[in-house]
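My hope is that you will study the protein record below before we discuss the fold together.
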Amino acid sequence: MEVPGARYPRIHLTMDNSFASKRWTAPSDWARIIRDLGISCIEASADTEADPFYCGPEVMAEWVDEVRAASQASGVEVVNLFTGYTTYRTLGLAHPDARVRRRVAEDWLGVAARAAGRLRAGLGFYLHAFPERALQDAAVYARTKDGLYDTLAEVARRSAEAGCKATMVEQMYSPHQIPWTIAGTQEYLVEVTRRAGAAAYVAIDAGHQTGQHRFLRPSPEAVVHALETGAAAPYLGSDSAYTLFEEARGRRGGADAAAERVCAEIGRYPHLFAASDDCDLYRWLEALGCYSPIVHLQQSSGKSSAHLPFVAAHNATGIVSPPRVLQALARSYEQPAAPGMPPRTDDVYLTFEIFFGTAAYSRDILPALAESVAHWRRWVPEDGLRLDDLLHR
């Protein structure tokens, strides 16, 4: 139900061009294909020959010119740039060596931000991870996170200066890739926005709630049961908690007291655990959708983040429902604004991020994308309409 006084966003169906990687790589090719799918808003993935490290600043500048020409010819617009698989496999902005952090911030994100600014687009990325030694030491973890927030604030500030429409980090689904919980994402948004003096946003992915269930805090009863029966230990988080568990397993009796010691040790590492709400896409959208200019769309069974298309076979078992996504987004805009958060986004780009295997037949890719677009067009028939108008339909 619409709440009087709520300021609802404009909604746009958008296509990430990663499907075109190593297949339709020229801007004129992927722009034409996406236009023919009935989509005019594009998210350009660095994996589709727009990686600042691979290409370098000169080629990236020429790529922007090619994108502009393709946009004019096809009537489409690149609304966001986004990192891809290449940048997903590095410590990057959380690297312990400052030289690596600086190179990633300046020579990757700096180049991408200038390209996004020239295109009047947003910049979304995921370009960091925490090593195990940081996760296993609460003090090291706190220092690493604090340093990362400073670096992300610098990126947000410089991106705003370069003319980026919005700067956002994607949420993930495991402890070594923050933000990965709702509470942690709220902290990221407040801290980085405050330190940057510029808005920092999040990109929510419809399949990135499938890992958190593996990292739920065990109950004392579950720990006692495992000790008494010899069953495998539940997830305990820290190495020190597992050590206490194994030591207790070697002794007779005292399972309750041993479980109490294990659970106390678990409590020293809250950053290693998720809450039940973190496993739910719709709780993420309700809590944070209004701070997410990009929502990556993939069909998912709820058990993995496979980036499946919205075709009949996957929709039959999938949990990603267009009307539920829109309704959850609306509830986010209907809640009172939380202190310290960035301004709510006026535009939400519901962005198909659908992946296909290297051995997939090229001729099968476009029909799957077309069916996905048709599925969502039932609820978003026209881009730029306000969310409340779509729900009234």
